[in-house]
Amino acid sequence: QVHLVESGGGLVQPGGSLRLSCTVSGSIFSINGMGWYRQAPGEERELVAVITSGGRLNYADSVKGRFTISGDNAKNTVFLEMNSLKPEDTAVYLCYAKWVRYSGSPTEYQDWGQGTQVTVSS
What we know:
By secondary structure, the protein is mostly beta strands. Helix content is 0%, strand content 55%. It contains no helices and 11 strands. 29% of the residues are buried.
């Protein structure tokens, strides 16, 4: 069984910073990509940032220049550094990972974490 455990959410004032982390554990061969989505109440889930195993990055336009995603392959961990936070960044942030069970497997799995609340408010 594969687990994703997130940490780092909380309450911060506008203009502040937070760092989220997400670690994958379980019986996997390799991770093809990890990233973060977010979902605010009454809103659709939206992509925030993703990173592939090859190091390719993709960000939502709304967070470019403020958020930075990075990964530690050895620890199966992804980080999201969030700076200059705005009230509209308030949401539950969910980590996901795409992974394969063995070398050469044609099947890619995707799992999600439980989510961590980020609240930006004065």
